[in-house]
Amino acid sequence: VTIQQSQSQFQSQVMKFYIILLLGFLTAVAAEQGTAGKQQDVNALLWKIYQPLHRNRLKKLTCGFSPISSTSIYTDEGVAAKKIVDEFNCENLLEQKKYFSLFNPKHREETLMLFELFMSCKTWDPCIRNNAAYFRERINENVFVYALYVTVIHHPLGDGVVLPPLYEVTPHMFTNREIIDRAYSAKMTQNPGKFQMNFTGTWKNPEQRVAYFGEDIGINVHHVSWHMDYPFWWKDNYGYHLDRKGELFFWAHHQMTVRYDAERLSNNLNPVHEIYWNKPIDEGFAPHTTYKYGGEFPSRPDNVDIADVDGVAKVREVMAWERRIRDAIANGYVTGRDGKQFSILHDRGIDMLGNIIEQSEYSPDRAYYGGLHNMAHIIIGRQGDPKGKFDQLPSVMEHFETATRDPAFFQVHKYINNMFKELKDKLPPYTREDMMWNGIELEDISVDGNLLTYFEDFEFSLKNALDDSVSVSDVDIMAVVKRINHKEFSYMLRILSKRNEEVDATVRIFMCPRRDNNKILYSLESGRWGCIEMDKFWKKLYPGGNILHRHSNDSTVTVPDVPSFS
Ligand SMILES: [Cu+2]
Asked: In the record, which residues are listed under signal peptide (predicted)?
């Protein structure tokens, strides 16, 4: 048991945490290598995506290459390449200098056409590299960026390549309009500058106290990266099965939600409540962000009744999906398209439920169970203009890299999370035997160093937000944002092994809020749902006493920021 006191101006409340430890068994991990050439290509392709390619080596390919002149470079004899070339020649593809949203079915179809072309490539050079250079200059810039990101993540040829931070590739999605305006002015007047970006809204809004969390560029990058690692549109014919995708959809969003609630508790706010389709959305939101092309992200006032969204979905339809999903949980089984029943009352049940709720291609019946998660994002996002009268653009809720900015994001995910809990609560409890590891005893755990969080300035480059001109050269322009960080600490675990042989152990460490919003102590049973995964690692345990030290920098749930590529 340890005590954390936040030192930030936002966090005045003392939080106390239990640390819970679980021991399990070892699995293996593999490390991969990248190549410098591919990395240079990716950096060049993603540098100033709204401008023509600047590297001579790649620039030559933008007109000296034809995607369909040699189909032997593809594993599918050029089928995917021909398809996108045909669509391009017929001018069916989204033009450049227009907004892109993955939740728009037509936009998604286009970016997947390019992704499928890349996935059919046998080699990086020439196939992926030349096609990337060729299409970068022709199709919508954001369609291209999304396709290239998911290709580098999922194509075996992308292994080892580090993708640049998205907030420097598409800064508009992460930066307030006020700062973008100042960046333009700085460039035009050739004055380098660093501009402090504040969180949107004012202190008149209690939600402002946790804006640092939802508007954090790190959580937005984490969220969009997760959805690129485990895309809802993924089909196994791209090459492999994404194991436990539905379960991880639950886990990733559950962790974001409980972490958000912990931030709320430490800022004297109630835990976030779930959305109800037949009640107003109490919290409004004004994003203060603009698209690079097309205009502003729409706002939503407080207390908006949820209305049908013309041409997208009726609230009634979404409520029917919810009813069918709740019935499945109550019945303990889901049904496939052919009427076949699959039990969900076992350890893979949550995986199926996750696929159903998210609107994954893995859902056993997408027509029947619908797409609760994706549609909730769109419907809630459109409530500023549900009839489409004002020609508004897609909201922050309709992009994975901006969604957490809106407090309604967490209300939607609390709603979804509670459905997962309904299933969890139906499962038989773990037995003592399930939880025990005979002969292994955790004798002591302590934390070296104080658990302290604080805010620090973080800078990122806005060069890629701005257009180039021969007469106006680049100057250094940075946005400066406050981000929450923590002081370093380490765990010490004393474990006694009474076994005769060495064994492999998985250690998992969770941190759980100790008191609720009324300062009442959580019982272990009521508080465990709010536990935050802090670390997970593997160690060998030898017969006798074992002392394990684990540093916070080594945590598997944190990563350093990707280096700037400006
Ligand atoms: Cu998400």
From this structure: 1-31
How many angstroms separate the CA atoms of 140 and 100, rounded? Answer: 8
Tokens of 377: 């994002």
Whole-angstrom Cα distance, residue 188 to residue 392? 29
Provide ipTM, 2 decimals. Answer: 0.96
CA 36 to ligand 1 center in whole angstroms: 32
Q: What is the pLDDT of residues 110-167, one digit of tens each?
A: 999 999 999 999 999 999 999 999 999 999 999 999 999 999 999 999 999 999 999 9
Distance 223 CA to ligand 1 centre (A): 6
SS (H, E, C) 338-400: CCCEEECCCCCHHHHHHHHHHCCCCCCCHHHHCCHHHHHHHHHHCCCCCCCCCCCCCCHHHCC
The whole-number pLDDT of residue 121 equals 97
Query: Which residue is listed with tokens 């699959």?
Result: 342
Question: Which letter, b or e, does each residue of 162-173 get, where b requires 16 or more Cβ atoms within 10 Å of its Cβ?
Answer: ebbbbbbbbbbb
Residue 319 main-chain phi, psi, to 5 deg: -65, -35
Q: Respond yes or no on whether the N-terminal peptide bond of residue 126 is cis (omega within 30° of 0).
A: yes
By the 8 A CB rule, do 253 and 413 touch?
yes
| Ligand 1 center from residue 114 Cα (angstroms) | 23
Specify the pLDDT at position 2: 24
Residue 515 Cα to ligand 1 midpoint, Å, equals 27
According to DSSP, the residues that pair with 285 across neighbouring strands are 300
Mean pLDDT of 269-277: 97
Q: What does 269-307 look like in DSSP terms, one character per residue?
A: -PPPPPP-TTS-B---B----B-SSS-BPPPB-SSBPP-
Question: Can you tell me which residue has the tokens 């008149």?
Answer: 204
CA of 401 to the centre of ligand 1 (A): 9
Residue 400 Cα to ligand 1 middle (Å): 6
Rounded to whole angstroms, the Cα distance separating 333 from 325 reads 10
Distance CA 175, CA 197 (A): 8
- Give all domains of the chain, ordered by start, each with its CATH number: 2-29+430-554 (2.60.40.1520), 36-159 (1.20.1370.10)
What is the Cα–Cα distance from 161 to 458, expressed in whole angstroms? 24
State how far the Cα of 382 lies from the Cα of 389, in Å rounded to an integer: 11
The answer to whether the beta carbons of residues 226 and 252 sit under 8 Å apart is: yes
Cα R_g (the chain), whole angstroms: 25
- Cα–ligand 1 centroid distance for 250 (angstroms): 9
